[in-house]
Amino acid sequence: MMAVYNAKIEYLDGIPSDFIVTLKTEWDEKAPKWNKYPDTNSYISAGYVYSHDKTLDIIDKVCKEYSVSADEEWATFYRPGVSMFGISVEYNDYGRVYHKHIGNLNYETFKNIFRDLHYAGLAPTMSYEKVPNNPLIVSNCSLGNLRISYLKSYGIETDDSLNAELESLGFDEEKIIEENIYRITERSSKKI
């Protein structure tokens, strides 16, 4: 059952946009390489600069791609608008932690941006304001996990809406069960 649940989450995560796949690849190629630095401190410092620059560049380009804007105002995230979504991404500037916030997002735009930021490794946090000044805030999970758990419990998604999307994506529960039974059988036969 856990394999089926995890597969549903993976399907509901969605496919990252071509735009973010290309951008992530560009940034991955720029990542500091251990053997290019004379000592550990230099390598760590380069990592801080890389992470800072990568986060700000990706947020800027994602905002342009989806015609939204980001700022550092907490109200943008904590009060995104009733029935609207917000996203917050943390970044570090030599020991000081800052946040970029995107707010006033409808559900479809939120899903696209959250999916892409998560794919790029920026660990976005979601806010949803069902009632004024009382947002649901969730971090440390993917879009699929948000949808199947938190957004379903909040009434934004339903079993019917999730199942309809899974069906449209070609999700095959029986096939996943068969694949996992095969893996388990293979593993146990190798131990004997």
SSE blueprint:
Elements: H1 2-13, H2 18-30, H3 40-65, H4 74-78, E1 85-93, E2 96-105, H5 107-119, E3 125-128, E4 136-138, H6 143-153, H7 159-168, H8 173-191
Helix pairs in contact: 1-6, 2-3
Secondary-structure element sequence?
HHHHEEHEEHHH
Total number of beta strands: 4
**Unreliable spans:** none
For the record, the count of structural domains works out to 1
Strand proportion: 5-15%
> Can you tell me the overall shape?
flat
Rg: 20 Å
Mean pLDDT figure: 93
- Termini gap: 25 Å
Lateral strand order in the biggest sheet: 2-1-3-4
Largest sheet: 4 strands, antiparallel
State the helicity in percent bands.
55-70%
- How many DSSP H or I helices? 8
- Structural class, from secondary structure content? alpha+beta
What does this structure look like?
The structure is a single chain. The chain contains 8 helices and 4 strands, in the order ααααββαββααα. It has 192 residues and is of the alpha+beta class. The chain has one domain (2-191). The protein has a 4-stranded antiparallel beta sheet with strand order 2-1-3-4. A hairpin with a 7-residue loop joins β3 and β4 (136-138). α1 crosses α6 and α2 runs antiparallel to α3. The longest helix is centred in the first third of the chain and has 26 residues, at 40-65. The protein is flat. The model has no long low-confidence stretch (mean pLDDT 93).
List keywords for this structure.
192 residues, alpha+beta, four-stranded antiparallel sheet, 8 helices, 4 strands
